[in-house]
Amino acid sequence: MSDVLSVTELRKEYGDTVAVDGVSFEVGRNEIVGLLGPNGAGKTTTINMILGVVQPSSGGIRIEGMDLAAHRSQALERTNFAAVYSPLPGNLTVFQNLRIFGLIYGVDDLPKRIEELLEQFDLKPFRDVKCGVLSSGEQTRAALAKAMLNRPHLLLLDEPTASLDPSVARDIRSRIRTYVTQGTGGVLWTSHNMYEVQDVCDRVLFVSHGKILLQGNPKTLPGEHGKATLEELFITVAQQPLTLEGAGA
Amino acid sequence: MKGLRRVAAIVLRHFYLLRGSPARLLPLFAWVAVDILLWGFITRYLNTVTTSGLNFVPTLLGAVLLWDFFTRIMHGVAAAFFEDVWARNFLNIFATPLSISQYLSGLVITSIATSLIGLIVMLVLATTVFGLSFLTYGLMFFPFLLVLFLFGISLGIFGCALVLRLGPASEWLVWPVPALLSPFAGVFYPLSTLPLWMQWISSLLPPSYVFEGMRRIVAGGAVSGSSLAGAAALAVVYIFLACRYFASVYHHAQRTGLIARYSAETLS
Fold first, then answer.
1. Mode of pairing for the β-strands spanning A186-190 and A32-36
2. With contact defined as beta carbons under 8 Å apart, do B212 and B219 qualify?
3. Residues A179 and A140 in one domain
4. DSSP label at B58?
5. Residues of the domain holding A225
6. Does residue A99 belong to the interface with chain B, where contact is any CB pair within 8 Å?
7. What is the value of ipTM here, to two decimals?
8. Do A131 and A27 share a domain, yes or no?
């Protein structure tokens, strides 16, 4: 079976600034890939290009073999996302938001799917509560429920646990892990929490200045580069990317 | 089928918002009702103080009703779009399989539904309280509404594109557009009253044909069907141009990455 996501020589320029500089990577089925890097490294721009809201300057994106530029709707039907900076509209209830996005994504037997997700993400008590008055943890769970509506083959998560306490964050990680192992989808996950990345990701890509500097297994990668922890490796990528350039990309 | 469900989702979103918010529901009929009352009494007063024998009800009150309908249509499209601006919902909406045409169709259907509420309230008030008879206009009332509807849609979509291009703060440029056009549309006076340069602009505005036609009917004349058909065709061209403009602004926002980080100060 083909990869769920295949990114080839993806590049994005804003005037003279190069935000993403020719990155290529894949996300396989049943795989969680971490996209790591300091602020401004190009992670969110990469995710936004995969979501079709930012147009690449060059390069290609294929979702389950489908060219995103040529088959946007079909490709995005199999994709979904949750991002800490993009909560669901606060003036609608959890149920209303799920119903609206369920219709947009063309979810079959939507009422049943919504009830399943309300149950799965412990949102039943908040079914008819406006999202704007939920706590940040509850809002994140609602956003994740929306992200799971269409049982996406490609799930993009941009710092999904950033505003959560450790207990809720662990719970969310476990649900996503279960989703990936039980289904056929893959996940591209960004996070600044290296403990989380080591816990959940099968593979990580370190990005700096728009380029992939390193990639590999988050459990073994630090040792391969003479670092004790993933966090140490992250700090090196952020502060001294030149010492790692060409090391493993 | 999927396309229809997506359009329905946009309409449903606005139905939920209206249902849960008296602050959104009330303006659908309150301001137009106030307008009809105000102008109804003005026309009643004018009928008593003028000796010309001219009945101001079908000319002035009818004009107010038609103009308010046009304004509601335009504002209906724009307000439905602004809900996504105010809720910072662009990323959620535009990172889905929804196409631009499905999104715009949803906004237009929402506007039809909300404007009909205002139209019904205006018709009831104008006929029952002030005796405005739509028999005066005959069957031409429907083409009048159609032309105003089409032009309202085109301006609404243009307004959305403008706000997408210039940023949320520019919504204040969009709300007063009908008021800016009204002197040129000849809502309350014949176009011959205007200087030539204004008449030239009027000829590009479909509503000007409607109001000229309305006055002609009230004066006992006939409306040229070809002139109204021309106005409708012009409005359809404007809709096409407005959609093209929206698509072009959307693609510009995709290229510059502004859809993903849309806020009041980032777009200028």
1. parallel
2. no
3. no
4. I
5. 1-78+153-249
6. yes
7. 0.90
8. no
Can you spell out the DSSP letters for B161-202?
Answer: HHHHHH-GGGHHHHTTHHHHHHHHHTSSS-GGGS-HHHHHHH
CA distance B113 to B232: 21
CATH number reported for the structural domain that contains residue A223 in this entry? 3.40.50.300
DSSP assignment, residue A93? B
Alpha helix segments (H runs only) across A57-193: 72-77, 94-104, 110-120, 136-148, 166-182
Query: Is A177 in the same domain as A70?
Result: yes
Query: Which residue carries 């476990």 as its tokens?
Result: A174
Q: Tell me the C-alpha distance between A210 and A208, whole Å.
A: 5
Residue pLDDT, tens place only, B160-173: 999 999 988 899 99
Chain A hits for B93, CB-CB cut-off 8 Å, are 104
- Report DSSP state, residue A88: P
Of B184, B234, B224, the residue nearest B67 (C-alpha): B184
* H or E element that contains A236: helix A230-239
Report helix angle A136-148 to A166-182, nearest 10.
10
The whole-angstrom distance between B187's CA and the closest CA on chain A is 38
B 85-124 residues inside an 8 A Cβ radius of A: 87-99
User: What domain count does chain A have?
Assistant: 2
Q: CA-to-CA distance for B201 and B181, rounded, in angstroms?
A: 10
In a mutagenesis test of the B interface, which of A17, A45, A53, A93 is the best target, namely the one with the most B β-carbons within 10 Å? A53
Dump pLDDT digits (tens) for B191-247. 999 999 999 999 999 999 999 999 999 888 888 889 999 999 999 999 999 999 999
Distance from CA of B33 to the nearest CA of A (A): 27
A:113-142 residues touching chain B, CB 8 A cutoff? none
Set of chain A residues whose Cβ sits within 8 Å of the Cβ of B6: 103-104, 106
> Is B16–A77 a contact, with Cβ atoms under 8 angstroms apart?
no
- Tell whether A68 and A96 lie within a shared domain: no
Token output for A148: 């799971």
Chain B: nearest CA to A165, how far in angstroms?
A: 24
Rounded to whole angstroms, what are the CA distances from B24 to B13, B17, B208?
A: 13, 8, 30
pLDDT in tens, B1-54: 889 999 999 999 999 999 988 889 998 989 999 999 999 999 989 888 887 777
Structure tokens belonging to residue B225: 């069907």
Of A96, A122, A151, which closes a domain? A151
Asked if A116 and A168 sit in the same domain, the reply is: no
- Classified as helix, coil or strand, A71 is coil
Tokens of A70: 């040529």
User: Between chains, do B96 and A100 touch, taking CB under 8 Å as contact?
Assistant: no
Q: Look-up: residue for tokens 């994106």?
A: A61
Q: Is B188 exposed, middle or buried (0-12, 13-18, 19+ CB in 10 A)?
A: middle
d(CA B94, CA B257): 12
Per-residue 3-state assignment (H helix, E strand, C coil) for B107-138: HHHHHHHHHHHHHHHHHHHHHHCCCCCHHHCH
How far the first Cα of chain B sits from its last, in Å, is 38
